[in-house]
């Protein structure tokens, strides 16, 4: 619609220009015709003065009449008293007078040729508003009008012609071509715009996928930093204790610490492998996961922290709970983050505890992880899953954000609230649809 309007405006504007130019041309041509007509009439009328000067009493009226049929009468004595120049009694006739005599001129006969050949719509010669000859329409409302007094002292007649533009001879073909021209220009401009827009969209898409890739890389890097931090700290602590024991000649006591170190190292290796796979694709290897066992393993991995915080960890996941089809490492990370947070939240609590509880409904498994800490503040309740939200001095604020992503990848959901006892309570729901029992 907008394009049609633009086309119309452009066509009307440039078509208008063509029409104005063509009309101007017509006007100029007719002005030239008027000048020629004026000149010819002036020449013709000035002949009368010459004839009057040459006429003598001896001229033979019949010969004069034959040569100049428009001279109706003449007399070689001037009128006394002098006659008016024009005799309005009979339209188109007038006397011209001089000291030599007078001539009665019949204007229609004198100008018969011009009158016959002129092409104006209205033509008139008049003397002091008295028309001597008129031809054609009245011409009052006509577009163009040319008027001039004949430069003859004896016959100062007024020549007036009018005309209208000849619409049929306007350059209609050119106007049509103008319309077609603008239609073609608008079509190609449109095509150009469309290609440009498509190119922009393609560029944006490329830019966006690059950004998305960078974003994913950033997410992976942040995840790596977060997840590797705890096992590395644990390995450091186990190794330092083992070193001390060996120095104290108690090498046999170092054995379980080295085993724990190996376990943490294997976890690091598994995490790195998972991250590497994630870099290649988002597909994760799903398999039946025993939630109770994974929780036990996480308890072992965080053994150091649990011991240091004197936290009692209670596993209320029933043995009979069906396995969840998931990535074992993913579930391990989820539990690891939840348990780690619960331990960290209770560093100043005397009787620290964490309970995991699991139940099954017709189509889902519901897990709750509750602790005996202070619970989540109002702000934490709102923002706990936002990346980089943290209230801990050395926290990154990524644990719960990563946990939510991992839960959502398994089509599950996670919610944070405070339990009746005041501690934090995280509820996780995993659908059992298409899951194996
Ligand atoms: N069990 C909990 N009890 C009380 N507050 C908690 C608990 N779990 C999480 N929070 C609050 O939520 C915030 C965000 O937790 P999140 O695990 O995402 O980050 P973080 O533990 O602070 O840092 P990190 O990235 O190292 O895990 C915590 O700083 C804390 O304020
Ligand atoms: Mg955390």
Automatic annotation (TrEMBL):
Reactions mediated catalytically: ATP + protein L-histidine = ADP + protein N-phospho-L-histidine
Regions annotated as coiled coil: none
Annotated EC: 2.7.13.3
Enzyme class at the top of the EC tree: transferase
Assigned keywords, A-Z: Membrane, Phosphoprotein, Transmembrane, Transmembrane helix
Pfam families membership: HATPase_c (PF02518), HisKA (PF00512)
Domain of life: Bacteria
InterPro entries attached to this UniProt entry: HATPase_C_sf, HATPase_dom, His_kinase_dom, HisK_dim/P_dom, HisK_dim/P_sf, Sig_transdc_His_kin-like_C
Name of the featured protein: histidine kinase
Species the sequence originates in: Buttiauxella agrestis ATCC 33320
Taxon lineage: Bacteria, Pseudomonadati, Pseudomonadota, Gammaproteobacteria, Enterobacterales
């Amino acid at each position: 619609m907008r394009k049609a309007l633009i086309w119309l405006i452009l066509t009307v504007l440039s078509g208008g220009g063509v029409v104005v130019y063509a009309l101007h041309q017509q006007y100029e041509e007719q002005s030239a015709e008027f000048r020629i007509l004026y000149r010819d009439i002036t020449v013709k009328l000035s002949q009368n003065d010459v004839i009057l000067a040459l006429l003598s009493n001896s001229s033979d009226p019949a010969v004069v009449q034959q040569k100049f049929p428009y001279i109706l009468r003449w007399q070689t004595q001037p009128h006394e008293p002098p006659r008016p120049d024009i005799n309005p009694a009979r339209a188109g006739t007038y006397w011209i007078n001089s000291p030599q005599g007078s001539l009665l001129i019949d204007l229609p006969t004198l100008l018969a040729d011009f009158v016959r050949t002129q092409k104006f719509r209205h033509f008139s010669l008049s003397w002091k508003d008295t028309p001597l000859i008129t031809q054609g329409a009245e011409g009052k409302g006509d577009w163009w009008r040319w008027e001039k007094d004949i430069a003859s002292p004896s016959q100062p007649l007024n020549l007036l012609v009018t005309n209208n533009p000849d619409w049929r001879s306007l350059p209609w073909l050119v106007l049509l071509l103008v319309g077609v021209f603008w239609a073609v220009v608008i079509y190609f401009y449109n095509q150009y715009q469309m290609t440009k827009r498509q190119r922009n969209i393609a560029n944006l898409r490329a830019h966006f996928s690059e950004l998305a890739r960078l974003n994913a890389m950033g997410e992976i890097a942040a995840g790596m930093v977060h997840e590797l931090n705890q096992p590395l700290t644990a390995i450091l602590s186990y190794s330092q204790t083992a070193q001390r024991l060996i120095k104290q000649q108690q090498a046999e006591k170092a054995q379980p610490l080295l085993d724990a170190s190996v376990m943490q190292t294997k976890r690091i290796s598994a995490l790195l492998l998972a991250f590497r796979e994630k870099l290649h694709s988002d597909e994760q290897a799903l398999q039946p996961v025993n939630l109770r066992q994974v929780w036990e393993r996480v308890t072992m991995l965080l053994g150091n922290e649990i011991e240091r915080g004197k936290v009692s960890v209670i596993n209320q996941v029933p043995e009979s709970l069906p396995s969840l089809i998931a990535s074992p490492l993913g579930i391990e990370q989820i539990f690891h983050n939840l348990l780690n947070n619960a331990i960290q939240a209770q560093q100043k609590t005397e009787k620290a505890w964490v309970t995991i509880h699991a139940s099954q409904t017709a189509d889902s498994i519901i897990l709750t992880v509750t602790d005996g800490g202070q619970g989540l503040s109002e702000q934490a309740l709102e923002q706990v899953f936002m990346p980089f939200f943290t209230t801990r001095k050395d926290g990154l604020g990524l644990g719960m954000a990563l946990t939510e992503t991992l839960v959502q990848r398994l089509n599950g959901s996670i919610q944070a609230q405070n339990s009746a006892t005041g501690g934090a309570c995280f509820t996780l729901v995993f659908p059992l649809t298409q899951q194996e029992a």
